[in-house]
Amino acid sequence: MIQTRITTFQFYSLLYICSVVAAFMFVSTTLIDLGTTDAVLFPTVFGILSLITIIPTFAFCKKSKGESVLIATRKRNKLFSDIIAFSYIVLVFILLLRTLARLDLFVSSEVFPENTMTFLIVSIVIVSVFLSLLDIGALSRASTIFLVMVILSVSVVVTSAFSNVETVNIVPLFMNGETEFIKQALSYSVFFPESACLILFLSNIKGNIKKGYYLYILLLVLSLTIVSFTVVGALGEFSNTQLFPAFAISSVGEFRVLERFESIQSSVWTVCIIAKTTLQIMIISNCIRHLFPKIKWWTPNVLTGIVATAFIIYISQGVTRFSFVSSQIWVTVTYILLVVVLPLVSLLLMLKKKRGENLA
């Protein structure tokens, strides 16, 4: 991993942007009902789940003394470290495809309906590849600027749409039962696996990682709750008929100064998605360099971009292909493996090695 040092504020600003843009790019599904009051509590469940699932990562951080997972595990077991790196390549590549597929769907359905926007998606991949050649420091510092843009954008969207909130849309909680609520809340939560990035960049982050993470989760849960409440209050059951419910509230709101604020919002989210895809390509490329240290430094980034472009062109040709990439099973599996399994297995390796050293 590149050893550029960044502050916790810069790093978590990047994760916040990636998480919020995921919420606005959230595609309405039959598995998650975003039109009932239960949806307002989904972010709270996500916050609780995030506090639980981060425990292995924090424990690993303590055992590795702040070293990232690839660096620390390589010192213990090179083969295991290579397996971890390969796992991250596959799983993050799946996330990259999902991000690009959703962007393609978003642009072709909301921004330029009935137009093929493959060229735009390919252009975004090219830009992301170029930016990924920079270090994590440059991306994180830029994210502090993007953070202001995102907060302003979300604030204006919520403020403009809040006047359309109707009490008739606020129905009693748990209308479908507590079990169904928990099922839907967990299905919603796994769409935000950004915390998995932390263990990969531990060596780069300076500052109180735990405190920064708690503040990041608090701000994210608050933001998602406000957006969810606005979607439920302004759209109600109608939100389930919208392809992108969170984006839809920008068109129902009235903002006197900006007649077509959704156009500006589209630009903001596109910039944020570029930051997200850049981070994903950067992670994949770093893992490839970990496996092949002698490879030219730019080759993994370019190779990742080429392969991702080929896949996204193929996926964009059919709705069923998009549905496969974005299916709930893939979302759930990637979340569990990235956020829970890989950090936990890495921690067990560290603990096993420590015992051996103590016995020696």
Overall number of strands: 2
SSE arrangement, N to C: EHHHHHHHHEHHHHHH
Largest sheet: 2 strands, parallel
Helix content: over 70%
Question: What's the helix count?
Answer: 14
The structural class is mainly alpha
pLDDT < 50 stretches = none
Rg to the nearest angstrom?
20 Å
Can you give the mean pLDDT? 85
Q: Estimate the global geometry from the Cα principal axes.
A: globular
> What is the distance, rounded to the nearest whole angstrom, between the alpha carbons of the first and last residues?
31 Å
Spatial order of strands in the largest sheet: 1-2
Attribute tags:
360 residues, mainly alpha, two-stranded parallel ribbon, 14 helices, globular
Quick structural gist:
Helices cover 72% and strands 1% of the residues.
Secondary-structure blueprint:
Elements: E1 6-7, H1 8-24, H2 38-53, H3 55-64, H4 69-76, H5 78-111, H6 118-132, H7 136-162, H8 178-189, E2 205-206, H9 209-235, H10 245-252, H11 261-291, H12 299-315, H13 319-325, H14 328-359
Helix pairs in contact: 1-7, 1-9, 1-11, 2-8, 2-9, 3-14, 4-5, 4-14, 5-11, 5-12, 5-14, 6-11, 6-12, 7-9, 7-10, 7-11, 9-10, 11-12
